[in-house]
Each structure stands twice: as C-alpha cells, then as structure tokens.
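Task: encode each sequence below as structure tokens.

Item 1
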Amino acid sequence: MSIMNNFIINFCLLFTTITLLFLPFRNQPRITPKTHLKTRLILGGIAGLISVLLMFNSIQIDVARIDLRIIPVAIAMMFGGLPSAIITGLMIIGTRFLLTPADQLEGVIVSTVVIGLFIGTIGIVRRYVRMTFWNFELMIGIGIFYSLPAIYLLTNSWSTFFKISVAYIFFNLLAGYVTYQLLAELRRHFENIQYQQKLAMTDALTGLANRRRLDDSLSLVGSAEDGYSLILIDIDFFKHVNDTYGHDAGDDVLRQLGTTLASLVRPDDLVGRYGGEEFLIILPDTSAEETKKIAELARMTVARNLFPTTSVPELQITISLGIAHSSDSYTSLEALQQADKALYYSKKSGRNRSTVYTKTLELEQA
C-alpha cells in the first residue's frame, strides 16, 4: 500500500508541476524539434526540474529508486527533440549522484545507463514519428522496458520486483496518458488565449492593428538614434465614396488600402486603422527624410492603382498624409498631434499630398 501511496504522490506532483512550470510557454508558438534551440533547451531544463522534484519524492527499495521521471524525459523528447531530452537526462543523472550514498553508487551507474539507453532509443524513434498520443505512450513503454531489468538488478529479489513492477507499469502508462491529455488541453487553452488577444488587437475590417494596439505601440515606441516617425493617412473624399456607392464599397476600399499600405512598410513598422478612414503607420528608428520617401511611395502607389468594388470596378482614390518625427516632440501623443496638423495642412492644400510637420507649419495654422 505504501508503494501505491508514493506513486499517487508522484502522480499529483507531476501534474501540478507541469501545469505551473509550462505557463511561461502560454504565449509561445507550439514547440517542436524545429523550434529555436534556446526555447528547446529551456523546455529541457523545465522537464529536468520536474524530474528532480519527482526524484526527491521517489520510492526507495533496496538500492533502487523508482518514480515517474521517464514522463518528463518523454515530454522533452516529444516536443523539444534530442537537445531538450539531453538536458533533462543530465539533470536526472546529476541529482541521482547527489541523492545516492557513496556505498550505493552501483544504483547511479545502472540509472545512468538506463537514462542513456532510453534517450538514445526514443531519439531515434522521434525522428520518424509524429507527435501523437500513441507515439508518446510508445516512448513511455520504451522507458519501462529499460527500467524493469534495472529495477530487478538493484532489488535482486523476485518477490520485491513483482511487488513494485505492476504498480510501476500501471502508474507510468496512466501518467503518460493523463500527461499527454493535460498538455494537449493546456496548448488548446493557450492558443485560444492567443487568438482572443489577437482579436482584441486587430481591426475586424482590414485585419490590421486596431486603435488599441496602435495606442499601446505609441506608448512603447523607442527612442533610437534616428528616433521614430509617424505617418497619419486619410482617404480623400471618402464620404463621397460611401454616399455614392454605398458603405459596402467603402469597406472594400478600406480593406484594399490596408493591404496596399501593409505591403509597402518594412518588417519592423506597424500599420493600422486608427479610426474611420484614417490609417497610422509607426516607423521606429526612422529619420524624417526616410519617412518622407515612404509616405510619397504610399501616396503615388495609391494614386496610380485601382480599388475595384462590386459596384465600381475601376474606382480610383487618393490619400493625404501627415508626417511627424520624434525630434520635434517630447511624447508620442505630441508626435501624433503634430502628424494630425500636418495631415490637416495636406488636405487644406489640395489633398493627394504629404506634409512633414515643422514649427513653421504650426505658426501658419495658428
């Protein structure tokens, strides 16, 4: 009965630590053997920590120590591949040395051989199988296959061996089943959270960043050597498009303009719909001169392209743009206000043009 109770303690400890220690991965993409090495090594360290906690609560029988440590090794191999499993294995072996008295080192040697064979075998298996429940259980089965002879050698008693082998097999297979389902459920939960977060930061019509995400980015925009720039964009006579062709046509124009602007910006730039027919582009580490070139490219691209809708297959539009640079402001809010003043000047001066904010421009508008 004491063996069963200790396995139940291991069982509960395993699932508690998995739930807590895998929380840092909730905002990460699904981890696979092709994930960045640093992430996989961190995964191996977390799996190793779980194994160590299990070993501190392991069951001592003669010179053998039994627990559910093969589960974290299988987790590391299944998700992170060989580098993750090696880190986990090294942590297990190191802890085994620390926990074992000097007169019982044969147990450490046998345990090291078992872990080495286990990792080597499932490393080969992982190269040729997909990440499924049955393949995960196969890895657990391989760990049991290598562990049982070692347990017998260390206990050196058939009666003791049979007493623990049934419990060892049952709890490891059961733990493998529940662990895989728990990890799958956690991943579904994390992906749902990521999806909801994306929806909260995305404009439903254009698929670009929405006002909330743009405001958050403005509050975090850096102060690099070249500073940052903002381009505020407004569609010329957009009300006429809505009034003449209908709001569906207006929505088509907004979607297509969003796609056009997104295709023109650089990877580190952020383009979003700021509200109505206004778009905002945040350009980190960008000089005013470079920003002017990007704004003019956007203006000319829009002017020469068609924006077909269901009712108007050859609709053409133009945009007006206001540009502000961080060198002329103290805060991002002030920079945005300056971009708005520059945009107002572009529209007042005839539209279909871009204007860079200057102090002179503000004096003219006063």
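Item 2
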Amino acid sequence: MVAALAVSCLLVATAFPAAARESFDDFLAGLRSEARRQGVSEATLDRALSGLRPNPKIIELDRRQPEFTQTFWGYMDRRATKKRIERGRQLLSKHGRLLGQVYRKHGVPPHYLVAFWGLESNFGDYKGSFGVIEALATLAYDQRRSKFFRAQLIDALRILEQGHIAPDRMQGSWAGAMGHMQFIPSTFKRYAVDHDGDGRRDIWTNLPDVFGSAANYLSSIGWRKEETWGREVRLPADFDLELTGLGTRRAVSEWSRLGVRRGDGGRLPASEIAGSIILPAGYRGPAFLVYENFRTIMKWNRSVLYALAVGHLADRLKGQGGLLAKRNDSDRPLSRAEVEEIQNRLNVLGFDVGEPDGVAGPMTRRAVRAFQRDVGLPPDGYPSAGLLQRLRQAAVDPGGDKKDDVN
C-alpha cells in the first residue's frame, strides 16, 4: 500500500511539476468560475467536482505510446473478426426497425452505423470505466494538451447541467470519450440528439439516441446517402504510383481508362463519382478506390486504417465477402524507434519530415515517396522494413545501385 502510494505521488509530481503551474485546488477554483460564466450551476459543480483529485493512471495512459506500428493486415484482423461480423449481423437484424427509422431521418445506412458501433465499443461492451469528469480534469490540469481538455471539461459540465446524465453515470475512456459511439463532449454538444423524445440525449444506455446521434453526426459532416465508401481494386502492372494517395482525385471512369479494375478483375461501374487510389500496405499490398464517404469517416477518426476497417466491416455486415488481395508475409510492424530512424535518415538526406516523432504521418509519407523516386524504388510512400534497409544502405553508399528494389 505504501509502495503504491509512493508510485502514485511520483507520477503526479512528474506529470504536474509544482514549479510549472498552479495547484490542483487553484485550478478547480478557476474552472468553477469559468463554468459558472457559461451557465453551470453551483449545485452541478458541487456534485461533479467535490473531492475530485487528478488520477495518475490517466497521465500514465496518455503518455504511453504503442511500441510498434500496426500493419494493414494486423489491424484488419483485429477489427473485422469472424465473431464481430456474425454478432454485427445479428444486431443489424435485431435493431432493424430502429435503424431503418434513423436511416430515413438522417440518410446513413444501418450497416455503417453498426460497423461504427462495433469498432468504437464492441457493440457497447467496452464503453470505458473512467469517470469522465475525473479524466478530463486530470488532462486539463496537465500541461500537454490543457487548452483542448479544459474546453472538453466545460462541455462535459454543461452536459451534466442539462440533465442528460448523472455525474456518477458519466463513464467513458481515459481520454473522456463517452458512450456506445465514444463521443467526446464537444461532439456530443454539437451532434447528439434525443431520438426517442424523452427529453434527454443519452448516448450511454439509450440505443435510439446512440444511433440517432451517430447518424446525425455523420450526415452533418458530409455523409452522402446514395454513395458507398469505396471498394477493393486491382491496379495494372504499369500503373503510375504517383497517382496514389488521397491528394489525387479522378472520376471512376478515368480510373477505369487507366486500367484499374474491381478486386475480382471485373470492370469498374460507369460513374463520374470522384475517388482516390490508396495503398495502405504499399504497392505489394491491397489497393482501394475510396470516395467521399471514406473522407467523412476520416473526419470521425483521422486514420486511414480505421476508415478502411469501418468500410470493410460495413460491407461484411451487408453480406459481402472478404478481401481478395494476397497477404504480403514479408511486411512486418515497425517499432516507433524504427520509424523515427527512418525520419532521421530522411532528414539527413534532405527529405524533410519535420521533427522526428516515430509516427508516419502525411509529411513522412511524402518524404518517403520523394526518396523512393530519387533512388528508383516504386514511389508508394510506404515506410517499411525494406525502406529502412535501403536508407541505411544509402548512408553507407549514397551512390549505389538505384534499381535495387527492397521496398
């Protein structure tokens, strides 16, 4: 017990250095004043904030970064599981009438809503066990992202003031994401709806409000009712990889003229809908033609892999088969240290990735593509173990053979 308390105190001291900022009590006093100015009553503040202390476990989770990146196949295997697909289909049928009502009102098809539900909380099984006020207060008091989480905390207090949930039932993730669809408070504030008309927007226990809120959110940020998210495709052997990426949009008919085919080899539909070709596992992995709804999914979660998982899971729930591309068994997860090494080596060679952070974002992928182009590798922008090997080789022999394809 004493040892655990000592560790807890050390974590608090590390996360919240006393010399760097105000005490937690002073922080709460300032928060109370701000919340009162935004219409939160003293009674709500007392119920929500009395006895509140920062939680070191939340800071530990916030600082913890995954040691390894995830490959495309590894990510999909964990999310579009056979068990999740089967259960999702059962729930799609069970709640068909409600989901149909939500579709008619907001224009988001039921299989997409159930796919989001499955990925966000495993259909409500894992909604989070942290008190949202405690989590947000801890993160708002911390210096790293204080402004963002303070705003979320004020919104959470306003949700309590409006009576949508009681403080002791406002549970969520360590980062303050709430309910079946893991809305943060600002998303709740803008998009949550009272679908069943009981006077409360309950995204924790009320499925009409859960589905209605998710659909309202998606339709408000650009969901196109008559379009799909995308599809798996095949690229011709001579396809110009410079055309891949979300930055390039062409009509489906234009991609067809360039030799792009459906995943099963058939011709693409005759359509002028604009889409982009993406290669989430590099040119040796699967290829997808993605449309505007894919970009809307990325507004929910700015991860290409997440958006692909939503789209693919939605297709499977509707009865479509699995992916057709063959797995590349040589592709392996990179550690954050390896990604950071790639970034450092690219910077040294003059391909700007900004400050190395171990995360392969758009700037890193642009730099990877530029390096690949420079040394004669297929320019797919994919950071792989083979690419790291080539970068190490470039440091030793910068004038080496530019046709050595180890990507």
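Check on item 2: Residues 234 and 403 are 24 Å apart (CA to CA). The chain has a mean pLDDT of 93.
End of task.
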